[in-house]
Amino acid sequence: MSLPSSLKIDASGFRVTLDPTDPAFVQDPYPAYRAIRERAPLFFWEEYGCWCAASHQLVFDLFRDRRFGREILHVATREELGWPQPQAHLAPFDAVDAHSMLEREPPVHTRLRTLVNRAFVSRQVERLRPRIATLAHELIDGFEAKGRGNLIDAFATPIPVILIAELLGVPPAMAPQLLDWSHRMVAMYQFKRTRGIEDQAVAAAEEFSSFLRGYVRERRAVPRDDLISHLIAAEAQGDRLGEEELISTCILLLNAGHEATVHAIGNGVKAILQEGLGAAAVQAGGEGLVEEMLRFDPPLHMFKRYALAEIALGPATLRKGEQVGLLLGAANHDPDRFPEPERFLPSRERPPHVSFGGGIHFCVGAPLARLELEVAVPILFERFPGLRLQGKPLYGDTYHFHGLRALDVAW
Hints:
This protein is an alpha+beta fold. It has helices spanning 23-27, 30-39, 56-64, 78-81, 91-98, 108-119, 129-143, 151-156, 158-168, 175-186, 195-221, 227-233, 243-275, 279-296, 328-331, 366-383, and strands at residues 8-10, 15-17, 42-45, 50-53, 68-69, 148-150, 302-307, 311-313, 316-318, 323-327, 388-389, 394-395, 404-406, 408-410.
């Protein structure tokens, strides 16, 4: 695909103009990433008003650079940064964000991550393998006779949302409502959000929080073998999650635990079909196939961090409180790290992609996401060895997320 018409690169000034809603960029951002990376691997993105890193080495290093963080108000005041006061109408949404470990730095992040790891990671994700397989087969049984369909709705979406609902101890029948709340909340992170998007996100945050409080009360009284009960019981050095932290953690695990995996499955299956890999190759792909799916077309394309002090970074001098955008999709296609990056090669040697982030904010759900891909995708091709695309897959205009609106296929 050609370069987006909105792309303008001032290599000498390290500045780039690129509308994230440009249709050419939405459908295929990688040519633009390549053009930018070749001329200005660290650049100021005019539309976002911040510096961004497009090379693998820069992104890899910045994930781990402790001079940057996900929050800034623990080391600076709003007055010092020239920030306005929080908007009153966003208070319910901000309250959820305020207790999310994704938005916190040590020591708060360390405490929250330790507690969640004890309840989540230590629960041995591998034991979910049979359930993922059963779920994949059940879903296929439900639509196999149709001969064609949209895999995003029929397969990629139900697997992660049903699984995370079951992990939390929420009835799978709640999956459509959980999806609705999640979609409305994550829309807040898209480019150019509107007041309507904000109002919808606030309402979803209130409804989701109220729903989870009821479950927390039930699990405090009668614990079960589910994630909410384990999070309630999790302790580290005599500490426990407070109720607001518990609510925010459950929302984070659902929103992050399904949104990204839906698009990892959809984007990955699209890549497999376009590459022309047969069912046998998918069956034999193993870990290499999963990692290439994650590298080739990741679901998250930007992760921002604040400069915690004035920092000189290449051609940039970032003031305290300024943000830097880490472009995961660009980093994953850097030829200095991945030879022939535009080819989908499950057999390639596997240097670390950055689709799960890095440093202290490396995705806590990465083992589960990998397992879902490893189990569900081969089952799909085992059941439908003649799987083929129907029409051109179209991505949604949701940057910095990158996922298909639909994946129409026949079998």
